[in-house]
Amino acid sequence: MNAYKYVSKFWKEQKEDFKQLRIARLIEWRREPSLVRIDHPTRVDRARALGYRRKKGFILVRTRVPRGGRRKPRPVMGRRSKRMGVKRLTPKKSRQWIAEERAARRFRNLRVLNSYPVHEDGLSRWFEVIMVDPNAPEIISDSKINWICNSSHKGRVFRGKTSAGKKSRGLRRRGKGSEHLRPSYDR
Q: Residue 171 above 70 pLDDT?
């Protein structure tokens, strides 16, 4: 087994020493702002699998997104309780997609490549978003990643083109039975 397999096994098993490390990290992360640029990925195996490379032009951002249902102020008058529209409000996007969008709004000159979950507690979820600088010469000269420098990939996260966005839009299914899921289908 290579080193990344051991790291992923460590994350999956979550033994006692992992739980202590997790508690210590969460205490720190709760005090930080909701968007923090970080130097190294917390889950190296996951970051590498999703396209991260340790070179200039790749940036990592840790994002905190609140958990739970959405809240809306109660209407003052004129509705029965069933039609209040206060409870059972859920967003149409996944928390991961929301985290990617927030990171993209903060770092406007970068493009979102992918993201992965890191931790969660009762109030929040943390995701690490992999971002790429399309103007960096290292990225432009790299044939594996320079597709993101194209102007057609500008704002790809807001159009649901990342992995989390495609999953939220229901585009993971292919073949028979998924004809009506595609946005190109003319109704």
A: yes
